[in-house]
Write a structure and sequence with these properties.
By secondary structure, the chain is α/β, with parallel strands linked by helices. The chain has one domain: Alpha-Beta Barrel (TIM Barrel), CATH 3.20.20.140.
Length: 372
């Protein structure tokens, strides 16, 4: 096993970057290339904390190690700042798709909050259409390169604002033109899903898929509200579900655990957890268990049968990729190709797609791992 400087790793002689992957929790404003930020900021006179791509990348990396979600989120002022025109949104979305494909992703869902991109005069519809144009341009570019990728939009409402119903309506308006799901994002603690019950009711009435950031910066009550008030089909992060588990005994790989009602429900119903290992360390989401990736309860959740998926959350801020996240998990927990394939199967099954298309993704993953 050898980890290259770019985060790639070989497991059983196979490069992880070459394997087919599914990305479910990936923020558009957390994945802007530093070089693109520098270029676009210069055009609008936005002052940055560093004047070149490498320096800005270093600044994001340092900022992301704050151990605080609130501090972590402040770094988005610079990415969102250059995402206020249709042209810039389209470019950034296109580059996002190209970067996913270069990382071996065959299906991705990109989440972003349209309400944060109106300062330049765009309407909500204008913003969604600009991002969709970039996604389609990126998909076409990837197709021309001989690869294939599909990307759907998840529209996020900011949980500290009062526009969730409007964003839910926006998602429904664009469900036939690229939008596949709805989310609430932003500061989690103190802003439960129940604050947005009207939006979630509308989405449920229209059978529209929902994922909710929960169990990242807040605990079990946040997860409970996501499931009961938000009718979430997936949990954004959800790592703090571990608080509802009582580890009675651990002997090597054997673990005896007493489940709380909430943890048992999430496990038994196979509600997917959109875990983001590096980000969960950087934002302090796992602070109750430690400060290093090896302390992450990912492996405990996996061994207990939770539907774990692996995600990047914010590629720019955490200076990572899906390949790198898998590499870190291999290094921390000794996973083999069968384990990594299982994570991709979980993600494919959780995608906000019709079952026929999810089954097709599962076949593509199986074929890709088999050919490796």
């Amino acid at each position: 096993m050898s980890i290259a400087s770019d985060g790639d790793i070989k497991v059983e002689g196979v490069s992880l970057r070459s394997l087919p992957k599914i990305s479910l929790h990936d923020h558009l404003d957390g994945a802007v290339r530093p070089g693109t930020i520098v270029e676009l900021a210069a055009e609008i006179g936005l002052e940055l904390p560093a004047g070149d791509a490498d320096g800005l990348g270093d600044w994001f990396t340092k900022r992301s190690r704050s151990d605080s979600l609130v501090d972590y989120l402040e770094s988005f002022d610079y990415t969102v700042g250059v995402m206020q025109t249709a042209e810039n949104l389209t470019r950034i979305a296109r580059e996002f798709v190209e970067d996913l494909a270069a990382d071996g992703v065959i299906y991705g869902e990109v989440r972003w909050a349209p309400e944060q991109h109106l300062a330049g005069g765009l309407s909500l519809d204008d913003a969604v259409e600009a991002v969709q144009q970039g996604i389609e341009d990126g998909e076409d570019a990837v197709d021309r390169s001989g690869r294939s990728i599909r990307v759907g939009q998840i529209l996020s409402a900011m949980r500290q604002s009062d526009r969730s119903l409007e964003i839910a309506e926006l998602a429904l308006d664009h469900r036939e033109s690229g939008v596949v799901g709805f989310d609430i994002a932003g500061p989690e603690d103190g802003y439960p899903a129940s604050d947005h019950r009207e939006a979630f009711d509308l989405l449920a009435e229209n059978f529209f898929p929902v994922t909710v950031h929960a169990g990242e910066a807040a605990g079990l009550a946040s997860i409970r509200s996501a499931l009961l008030d938000g009718r979430a089909l997936r949990l954004g992060h959800g790592v703090r579900i571990v608080s509802d588990l009582d580890v009675i005994d651990r002997d090597g790989d054997e673990v005896q655990v007493k489940f709380g009602d909430l943890a048992r429900w999430v496990r038994d119903r196979e509600i997917p957890l959109e875990l983001s290992p590096s980000s969960n360390v950087h934002t302090g989401a796992i602070e109750a268990w430690g400060t290093e990736l090896a302390d992450h309860p990912f492996d405990l959740l996996y061994q207990l049968g939770f539907a774990v998926t692996v995600n990047v959350d914010n590629r720019t801020m955490s200076r990572t990729s899906l390949t790198r996240e898998l590499a870190l998990l291999v290094d921390a927990f000794g996973y083999d190709l069968d384990d990594l394939e299982a994570f991709q199967f979980n993600a494919a099954s959780a995608a906000f797609l019709p079952i026929e298309e999810r089954e097709e993704l599962v076949e593509m993953i199986a074929d890709g791992f088999r050919r490796s």
